Structure formats: C-alpha cells, structure tokens
Sequence to fold (206 residues):
Amino acid sequence: MKSIFVSGIGTEVGKTLVSTIITEALEADYFKPIQAGDLQNSDTHKLKKLVTNQKTVFHPNSFQLKTPMSPHAAAEIDKVSIKANKIKRPITENDLVIEGAGGLLVPINNSETIIDLIQPEDKIILVSRHYLGSINHTLLSIEALKNRGLSCSGIIFSGDEHKSTEEIIEKLSGVRILGRIENEPYFDENVVKEYAQLFQKKLKSL
Fold:
C-alpha cells in the first residue's frame, strides 16, 4: 500500500482531475482531508462521477467548510478549529490518493499549512499548469518540499503543451515529468480511463 499526495502550484490547476486519473489508474482509495465550499458538488462528488472501478473507496472529509476560501479563513467563519493532528487518515490496505487544497503553503490555521499534512512516506505528485509565473511557482513549490525534507515524486502538467517551460522546470528541479493532461473538450468516464491507462505504468513504478 502506498499513499500519493496530490498538490498543485496554486488553485484551479487541475488537482482534482489528476487525482481522479490517479485514483482510476491505481484503483486506489480517495481522501480529501479539507473541503472548503461547494459541499453539494465537492471534489469527492466529482470523483465519484468519473471513477468507474469497483475497488475504490471514497473516504469522508475530515473537515467540510461552507465557504470557498482558504481553509483557515473558512474555518474561522464556521467557528471550526483545524489542526493537522486532528486529520486522521483512513485505514485501508489499498493505495490511497490524498488531495490537498490549493497549493502547499495554503494555511489551515495560524501556524500550519497544507504541507503539514504530508507524511515522509508519501509519494508527492505536483500538478503544474502553464501561465505567466508558473515556472516560478512550480520551482518554489519544489523548494518548499525540499526545505521540509520531502521530495517530489513527479510533475504532471495540465493544459496545452509549452515545451520550453516544461524543459526548464525539469532541468532546474531534477524532478521527473510524468506527463500531461490536455485541454480536452470534455472529461467523462471514458476519457478518464484513457488517461488512467496512459499513466498507469509510471504511477505503479513510483
């Protein structure tokens, strides 16, 4: 059993879609510790619609916050106290995909951030998407992991190819590029299955 922690270089870069594909590829369990906002159509709900294997178990969030804001701010509005040590990972013999919220340094309280939810044994997948500043954000995310004694197991790009960007990120970071998810016209169960098959071998070798 291995745990895969999926984080991004920021918000709206494709973490949930990448988590969906990894979950399908490995027939892994899925766990989103903190869900902030959109509780009727949460990330867990989205995965349930797209993951079709019969093995995956979708574990409940540790915290469900009503407001779509940074967890620390949403928790304050809901009068909830979030602490990393209050988040208990589900017990399972299956592989486990854990999806973070936003980027690695998104605060969950006044002293802890999403990176504090990562455990040393986790395989960390960083999702990067091309935009002005994305090289900086990607490299800073990898540096943040290194500063905690953690290593990134691979980068998955989301969106259109930008060859020079991908090449310089790989060269400067030394992190393996696992592949890219294109800007597809739509994502349904069949498209997710296709990407799952494409990534399966690399993910199993982590």
Helices lie at 15-26, 43-50, 71-78, 134-147, 163-173, 189-204.
